[in-house]
Every structure is written in C-alpha cells, then in structure tokens.
Amino acid sequence: MKFITKIALASALALGTVNASDVLATVNGVAINKDYVNNVLKAQGKEFDKLPKERQKEIVNKLIERELLAEIAKKAGVEKDSDYKKALENFKKDLLIRVWMDKLYKRTLISDSEANDYYQKHKEQFKIPEKIHARHILVKTEDEAKKIIEQLKGLKGQELKEKFVELAKKKSTGPSGPNGGDLGYFPKGQMVKPFEDAAFALKKGTITTKPVKTQFGYHVIYVEDIKPSRIADFKDVKQSIITKLRQEAFAKKLKEAIDNAKKDAKIESAIVDLKDKKDNK
Q1: Could you give the C-alpha distances from 189 to 79, 124, 183, 184, in angstroms and in order?
Q2: What is the tens place of the pLDDT at every residue in 38-66?
Q3: Among 45, 203, 209, 253, which lies 20 to 30 A Cα-Cα from 273?
Q4: Element (H or E) spanning 64, and its range?
Q5: Cα–Cα distance measured from residue 26 to residue 187, given in angstroms and rounded to the nearest whole number
Q6: What are the domain boundaries of the chain?
C-alpha cells in the first residue's frame, strides 16, 4: 500500500489496546483499528474520520487485503525464511531508532523567551515586503488605453475608483475585468516587470497617466491601497521560530549522541575514512 511507509508502520506497532468501537474490520479474528489507520495517515496530515466515505472504504479494503496476504505468507512458511529474518532484524533496528529519536525530540523543548530572544536578534528575517492593491484595465491598443485615461483624468478619491471599476467591467479584456480589474494585494516579483514598475511607482488612489505596454496588451493601472514593508509581530512568527530552534537543538543533540558513541566504539571500515578517536575528544 502506497500510504503505509516503514516509519508509519513502526509507529503503529507501538500502539496499545483499542476500544471495540474503534475496530473498522476484523480478518479471521485480527482487528483493524482506527488508531492504527490514523497513525499511518498522520504522516500525510490526514485523519480517517475526515476522509470521504469512498476513500475510507478503499483504505480499509487495502488493510483487509494486507491481513490476508500476511496469512498467505505465513502459511507459505516465510517466517522461517532467512531473507525474512534478516529483513525483520533490520526493521527492528529502524523501530528502535525511531522510538528513541521520538523520545529525544519530545525532550527537546524551546521556551517562549528563547524564541523571543531569537526574534529580537534576527528581526530582518521576518520582514514583510511592501504590497499594493491594484486594479487594471487591459485593452489591445495604445489608443484605446489613452481614451480610457482621458475619461479618468481629473477624477479623485471614491469618484475615481468607481469610474475605474465601471470602465474595467465594460472595456477590460483581462480575466479580472468582470471584477472591476481587481488584482488584489501583491508584492514585487509577481507581475511582469513593465507592469510592476509602473504600479509600484504610483501613489495610493492614483492611476498611470500613460498606457503601460506588456506582452498582454496595454494597461491602465489604478493603485487602491498600499501596505508598507514591516516586521512581522512576534506572536505571528513565534511558532515557526520555536519549530526551527527545536529542530536545530534536536539535530545538535543527535550529533552529540552519535559523536559520543563513536568515541567508545570499535569501528573498522575499508570504505569510510574514519577520523582518529582523539579528534573527537
């Protein structure tokens, strides 16, 4: 089954007893329970109860088939096969490592004060770029664009916005035309350069006084609002900082554990260029 990975399966084996109400199916007395399925689906960020009914049926059917195949393999004497025994030993090692690493990660905690300290020292990392809210009217010819600009000339404030929206709905050939040419908020780097340069040069509540040519045609641009660049608030980035610092701290602890184990281990290899143990001290 595609959705069952070695890691997910290893975690699932660690589950305890389950309630009868959580049993999704039984195969010759072997229960397939919801906790097991959810543990497998966790890696995909999914939950059994929230899946469509057809998907639920598909998953349970696959697990039923898995149990049947396991029975077939047992009857065929695979448990006595040397290849199976070797694979089982490797799997046990993977499970052993996974459980130990899970416990190590759970013990690796980052406080709010540590996260805030990182935030204060690296504020530039959390800079939100300037964004503008723009509308545009796209037409095929420069002459058409000039005529639209003439109709908007002299208008200001709400009157300009309303007239621009009206003309966009009537004349714009772009997909945003029916919505008054609304492009929403966007930062630099999302639009073609000629359009972007013209739009970000405008002040709030103004339009381009000359048509802007791109590969799509000729644009008349109106900037409805501007959100200046700013540093994100700590509360909005705290969790991402904690996750980052926790992963870094976990990686450091993992490396230290491996390095310490290497000091006392007798390791010989014709492939790996191992450093002298003294280098690790």
Answers
A1: 59, 19, 14, 14
A2: 888 887 889 999 999 999 999 999 999 99
A3: 253
A4: helix 53-75
A5: 55
A6: 6-103, 112-122+233-280, 130-228
Contact indicator for 40, 3 with CB cutoff of 8 Å: yes
| Nearest residue to 152 via CA among 144, 161, 141 | 161
Cα–Cα distance measured from residue 19 to residue 39, given in angstroms and rounded to the nearest whole number: 15
Tokens of 137: 């009217």
- What single-letter amino acid sits at 90? N
> What is the spatial distance between Cα 62 and Cα 117, in angstroms, rounded to a whole number?
49
Pick the CATH number of 130-228 from 1.20.200.10, 3.10.50.40, 3.40.50.20, 3.30.420.40: 3.10.50.40
Residue 47 CB contacts under 8 Å (≥ 6 apart), including other chains: 38, 41
Helix, strand, coil shares, percent, the chain, to 5: 60, 15, 25
Q: What is the CA radius of gyration of the chain?
A: 31
Low-confidence ranges of the chain (pLDDT < 50): 1-18, 277-281
- d(C-alpha 107, C-alpha 97), whole Å: 15
- First CA to last CA across the chain, in angstroms? 46
Q: How far apart are CA 137 and CA 135, in angstroms?
A: 7
With CA atoms as reference, report the closest residue to 228 among 124, 123, 128: 128
**Structure tokens belonging to residue 210:** 């000359």
For residue 58 the two structure tokens come to: 């598909």
Residue type, 47: E
Which pLDDT score is estimated for 274?
A: 66
203 near 183, Cβ under 8 Å?
Answer: no
Which residue blocks in 126-269 are alpha helix, DSSP H?
142-152, 157-171, 193-200, 234-264
111: burial class by Cβ within 10 Å (0-12, 13-18, 19+)? exposed
